[in-house]
Each structure stands twice: as structure tokens, then as C-alpha cells.
Amino acid sequence: MNRDYVYVIESEFPELWVSFTPSGVMYRCDVTPPQQPGCCVPGFARSSVDPPEDIQDAMDQIAAFLQGSRSSFSLRFLERGTDFQKLVWQAAREIPYGGTLTYKELAAAIGRTESVRAVGRALGSNPLLIITPCHRIVPARGGTGGYRGGRRMKKRLLALEANYCSQTPPAHS
């Protein structure tokens, strides 16, 4: 029987739990620690073996991003959500490294200007933290707004990108 596994990326950020299917397709990134021994995301078991090459590559890409030496990803991932959520997530992935949009601007970018709250809910259910950079969406009134990884992490991600954009941008892909 195939099992899905969780691997941990350790960085200056809180531990990031990354779940993968046996085919190496990324399924979920989260900052939530295990709910029970050996498990982080329901249906996934924390792996005690070294990850396969494609999973290690994905983990290395995420770690490089968190270190400020990478600004984009070349990963295969499984995106589960409604058509609307997928539309919002794709639009968020198009925001350039170091850039931000307001929730209203993102709603307008997908042609749904009256759906600002729905955009916020879609971002809140984004299973691919960092890969789908919902941390780049901020409220029009200022501040950082909410983030499933926590406001502290959102502020740190925005600061990380701002810092590297003020210097030489990290390599893409």
C-alpha cells in the first residue's frame, strides 16, 4: 500500500512541514507541528527515511527560497480546490518576487472585483504556503493582514523578499 509522507524543512523560519505523495508531487506545506506522534497532516505519516531525489529537490528549492537565494519554483504539485480557489491561487503565483497586491487588486486581476472576501477565503485555504505566495497579498488599509502560517511568518517572508529585492534578486527557477 502506498503511503504519503511528511518531511521537515528546517530553516530560520518555524519548521515547515511539507507533505508529498509517493509520486513526489507536493501536496501541502504547513507550519503546524505534528498533531500526534509521527504524523502532521491527516493521512500522512512523518517519514524516517531519506526522501527520494525529486522530493529532496523540492525541499532544497523551498529551503533556498527561505534562505533568500531563490525566488521561484519548478515543482510539480497537486492542487486540490474549487475552480475559484485555483484561479485565485494561480493569480497569486503571478505576483513578482518582492511585490504585493491588495485583496481588492487580486480580485480585480481575476475579473471578480466584487469578490474581495471570497478571494481572502481562497487564500486562507491555500494548501501550498510559500509555493503559492499568499503572503504577498495585503489589506488596502495597510498592515499585513492574516496568514495561515501566522502573521509573524508573513511579516518575515515579506521582509525576506524586500531585503533581497533591495540587493541583487535571487536566481529564478
Give a summary of the structure in a few sentences:
This protein is an alpha/beta fold and 173 residues long. The chain has helices spanning 53-66, 83-93, 103-109, 116-124, 151-165; strands at residues 4-9, 16-20, 26-30, 44-46, 101-102, 137-138.
What does this 3D model show about the protein?
The chain is α/β, with parallel strands linked by helices. The chain is 32% helix and 13% strand. The protein has a four-stranded mixed β-sheet. It is globular, with a radius of gyration of 16 Å. It starts with a strand and ends in an 8-residue tail after the last helix. The relative contact order is 0.16. Mean pLDDT is 80; it is low at 34-40.
